[in-house]
Amino acid sequence: MDLAKVDALIERVSLFQGLERDEVLKIFSHGTTMRIAKGEAVFYKGTQGDTMYCVLGGKLGVFDGTGKTCLAELRTGEMFGEMALVTHEPRSATIVALEDSMLFMLRQSTFEKLMTKRVAIRMLLNIVRTLSHRLKAANLRLSS
Predict the structure, then answer these.
(1) pLDDT score for 1
(2) Partners of residue 63 on adjacent β-strands
(3) Over 24-86, what HEC string results?
(4) Which residues of the chain have pLDDT under 70?
(5) CA atoms of 40 and 94, how far apart (whole Å)
């Protein structure tokens, strides 16, 4: 992978912030990238999951169970599905590509095998930061 692209990923993808280039390269060598076409679902609300995703390009929608109400949009650099790695509970929403997109997938088993203590702590802190921002935004929406 082009080192400039790796540096851009570290800068743009919240999951990788604070990690060294060689750590991100190791993670990428064990994960999977996938293309998803506009209109295609990544996963559905209520399904069991063991994979988290990072948006490398494109735009996805977060939908309620009916698939009609778009709760949020995910763009390059954002992650989703991370709650499945932490809580082991069914998916809380349906994710659908709003345009052709490129995703990076990381399964829980790979996540656990790859992580040195430092990398695991950094990535978990990044996940907690993302979830905290989402909770704050939801609270603001509810209060207004």
Answers:
(1) 64
(2) 70, 94
(3) HHHHHHHCEEEEECCCCEEECCCCCCCEEEEEEECEEEEECCCCCCEEEEEECCCEECHHHHH
(4) 1, 115
(5) 11
* Spatial separation of the C-alpha atoms in residues 7 and 134, rounded to whole Å: 25
List, edge to edge, every strand of the sheet that includes 32-36.
Answer: 32-36, 101-107, 51-57, 79-80
Structure tokens at 143: 């209060």
How many residues in total does the chain contain?
A: 144
Q: What is the DSSP letter of 89?
A: P
- Quote the percentage of the chain above a pLDDT of 70: 97
3-class secondary structure, 99: coil
Q: Contact, 10 vs 16, CB < 8 A?
A: yes
Query: 31 with 110: CB under 8 angstroms?
Result: yes
128-141 CB burial, b ≥16 within 10 A, e <16: eebeeeeeeeeeee
Residue matched to tokens 């990428």: 28
